[in-house]
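Take a look at the protein record below and flag anything odd:
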Amino acid sequence: MIQLDKRELSFPDVTYADADGALAYGGDLSEARLLLAYKSGIFPWFSGNVPLWYAPDPRFVLYPEELRVSKSMKVLLKREAFRVTMNQDFPAVIRACKTTKRDGQRGTWITRDMENAYIRLHKAGWAHSVEAWNGDRLVGGLYGIRIGAMFFGESMFSHESNASKYAFISFVQRMEAEEIGLIDCQVYTPHLESLGARHIPRNSFMFLVEMLC
């Protein structure tokens, strides 16, 4: 991995990433660097106190028109099982993504610095949250970055069965209506694959980033 200089706002070409997608480390979490990262096909993770920057090949994405909605989810949507909002409580969503325990995952990559950085991006109009409510309780949601006609998903959580899936489906349907061309899911998960996400080559992803952002 290549070490970044905090004084220089730049990233190496994504072709320098290793087999796991790790490209660089260091730098900072300023608004300018984070936006440059997304526009360059790169996203941040954390290891300890050092930002890590990734650009995997292939890339896991969802074309909104390829969203798959199961029969059981169609029933829940028709029944309006949850109330879905956008940007109603971004801090609560990122906090829930940070603290919700996941099978097979120890700890969280959402450090306090990362949390604060994305809250700043939200206040600046770049980061967005989707909330699923059961009554007045926040039971699921997701957040990410929207640039142009692309949405870069970061994390999601669920405190009730199907809550995050319900929020995600509702969000993707809205994004398709708003002519969002691609949703970046970053890396493979069976959960997102069941909803229609798939791998594409990194060079195809980079072409779409350049075209849509």
